[in-house]
Amino acid sequence: MSTNGQKKNSEQINFRKIMLLTLAVYVFLVLSFYFLAGDQLRLRVSRGSIEMPEADIGAAELSEGVVVEQLFQAPIQRLESVSVKWGTNYRRNAGAVTMELLRPSDGTVLMQETFDAARIAEGQVLTISAAEPIETVCDVPLILRLQGDSAAGSAVTPLVSSQETRDGFSLLVNGEAVPGILCFSADGQDYIWTGLHYWKFASAFGAAILICFFFVWYRWKNGKRSYIIQALIAVKKYRFLIRQLVGRDFRTKYKRSVLGVFWSFLNPLLMMLVQYFVFSTIFKSSIPNFPAYLIIGTIMFNFFSESCGMTLTSILGNASLITKVYMPKYIYPLTRTMSSVVNLVISLIPMILVCLITGVQFKGAAILSLFFFVCLIIFSLGMGLLLATSMVFFRDTQFLWGVLNMMWMYITPIFYPETILSGPFMVVLKLNPLYHFLKSIRMCILDGLSPEPVVYFRCMMIALGMLLAGVFVFRKNQDKFVLYL
């Protein structure tokens, strides 16, 4: 067998190993996600849940013979509970009150519970719950009925928002309509369509991976150029140099520093402390567990900013090597991103410590946050390739990037809640890719919840879209780099 034939056969065997390893990793990730996500894969908090309005008056004292009814309907696929806010007129009352939820079409009582009026405090919220989620009342008219047996002058009062109006809602006291809406809420869950068909999507995506591998292998076998195989071969061939470049960038960052690598640990903590003082003391932030909320955003954006900033000068900074030694030029921005990933991994240690100290209870969903960190890394690499290309031809890119980076920081909810934005600002926020990565990471870590499957797909598409755009622009212009260095 010729030398070229042996080399090609060896590369074919390596490609098959990579294909098998990729499929094995994919199967592992699919199974891991299924078990880590649990019920959150198929169910979510209903978007049709009714939020409790602000109270301003009382409906009527629930003395014996008084009946307050709230007619409503809600697009909740699995209704779980209904809650009502009560007033006591700031006195100790007597008797009992009954809350019940009925379906008027057939008079079926769906939920019911009786409470001791003497134990109800001013502004207290009482909740009735179904033994099992009710799945037959989505967008169906319902009646929330409140009754009591107290004597006049010692009865509690359900509170009302007198100025509130909603379609399909009406409030009745002893059968007569009164203005406003009862201060109540209805909660439940909705099914996630993509989660219900999870295995179908997983199988289809796995089949797509196999088709992609087969297509690449077929082109390569028939002597056609395959950029994927060439990239894999180049990474293997230059892996020693890649390690040296990553190590050089990492050492250069802390050269002649007293604390050295410890700064990767200390920097996010110091930034978090400064921002925590400013936004929790001066601006009075009301975000729950603000330190953990803040350090997650700080670490994530610091990585993005550092990675893009280092990759920006990856071609110009290695001009002496590029003009003297041949190696694929994409290796240089890749190694800059990899050195930033090392700093990111070190920064995760203080993030975990802050979360533990502030009482965050890590659940299985926290592991799923790694997916969004990977999406962030891929997105940063794609952005870095664009910046590195632009920097070669247009040196003012570094100054424009400084301004853009600052703007990007302020339109990303690092130290403020997204709820303070509305209208056009919310549209801009939704167009910010970092917002989707950050929101998902916080949900996995702080809330212990897995985002919907569509969120994983959206973040993956955003990351891959940026990477493909960066690769396309970089490849199209890389042959011209030596003319401008």
Any overview of this molecule?
- The chain has helices spanning 3-37, 193-196, 198-221, 227-237, 239-253, 262-282, 290-312, 319-324, 331-357, 365-393, 397-410, 424-430, 433-447, 453-477, and strands spanning 43-45, 57-58, 67-72, 78-87, 96-103, 108-116, 125-134, 142-148, 157-161, 170-173, 176-178, 181-182, 184-191.
- It has 485 residues and is of the alpha+beta class.
- It folds into two domains: 57-191, Jelly Rolls (Sandwich), CATH 2.60.120; 238-483, no CATH class.
- The strands form two sheets. Strands 1, 2, 4, 7, 9, 12 and 13 form a seven-stranded antiparallel sheet that branches. It has a six-stranded antiparallel sheet with strand order 6-5-8-3-10-11, with no helix packed on it.
- α1 packs antiparallel against α3 and α7 (290-312) packs parallel to α10.
List the helices and strands and how they pair.
Blueprint lengths: L2 H35 L5 E3 L11 E2 L8 E6 L5 E10 L8 E8 L4 E9 L8 E10 L7 E7 L8 E5 L8 E4 L2 E3 L2 E2 L1 E8 L1 H4 L1 H24 L5 H11 L1 H15 L8 H21 L7 H23 L6 H6 L6 H27 L7 H29 L3 H14 L13 H7 L2 H15 L5 H25 L8
Antiparallel strand pairs: 1-13, 2-9, 3-8, 3-10, 4-7, 4-9, 4-13, 5-6, 5-8, 9-12, 10-11
Helix pairs in contact: 1-3, 5-9, 6-7, 6-9, 7-9, 7-10, 7-11, 7-13, 9-10, 10-13, 10-14, 13-14
Keywords:
485 residues, alpha+beta, 13 strands, 7-stranded antiparallel sheet, single chain, Jelly Rolls, 6-stranded antiparallel sheet, 14 helices, 2 domains
In short:
53% of the residues lie in helices and 16% in strands. With 485 residues, it is of the alpha+beta class. It has two domains: 57-191, Jelly Rolls; 238-483, no CATH class.
